[in-house]
Design brief:
This protein is of the alpha+beta class and 183 residues long. The protein is built from seven helices and nine strands.
Length: 183
């Protein structure tokens, strides 16, 4: 979780609205339905953007218009907040709100000798919380086992794409050896 927080920082502070202005769009020409403060954290900008009919918000700093944030610039800003990793598996768990603990989830993942890159919580059906974890390991099996051992209900798990598991590497090596022996 800390890596996610650290990746959102820019020069010692959390990424703000002023950092994701849409290039070439001004408040005067677009006339957005809502104006927000330039220092508003990105995570607070998103719901305001989604509440506007044109999916655009104006950004001002002490009454001075700075520009507009649209869906594209918001998506690019959120993309900068997520650490790019090709070696991460994705595991999704569901739990009741009273059972949710970010530190317990992190502990369960770390206990499987994997690193927790980041986590995202969203509401799920039946009042539960759905937590998506990015785990720095090509095979999420050990993390899934530990999460279940810690009484979290794992609803989905995907291995890292583009990275061969140890079993796949062993099969490839055996096939190569068999090819050489058959020559």
């Amino acid at each position: 979780m800390m890596k996610f927080y650290e990746s959102t920082k820019r020069k010692g502070r959390i990424m703000t609205a002023r950092e994701i202005l849409s290039p070439g769009k001004t408040v005067a020409e677009r006339k957005p339905a809502r104006i927000i403060d330039a220092d508003m954290p990105l995570i607070e900008v998103l719901p305001r953007l989604l509440d506007t009919p044109m999916r655009e918000v104006g950004v001002s700093d002490r009454g001075v218009s700075l520009g507009v944030i649209d869906q594209t610039s918001m998506l690019e800003g959120l993309g900068k907040m997520i650490a790019a990793r090709d070696d991460c598996s994705v595991v999704t768990v569901e739990c009741r709100p009273e059972d949710y603990s970010a530190s317990l989830l992190a502990h369960a993942v770390e206990d499987s000798d994997a690193h927790l890159v980041d986590m995202l919580t969203t509401p799920a059906e039946d009042g539960k919380i759905r937590v998506t974890l990015r785990v720095r390991h090509s095979d999420p099996t050990a993390a899934v086992h530990n999460l279940e051992r810690y009484d979290f209900h794992v609803v989905d798990a995907h291995a890292a794409e583009g990275i061969s598991s140890d079993a796949e590497i062993a099969v490839e090596r055996l096939l190569s050896l068999q090819t050489l022996l058959n020559v």
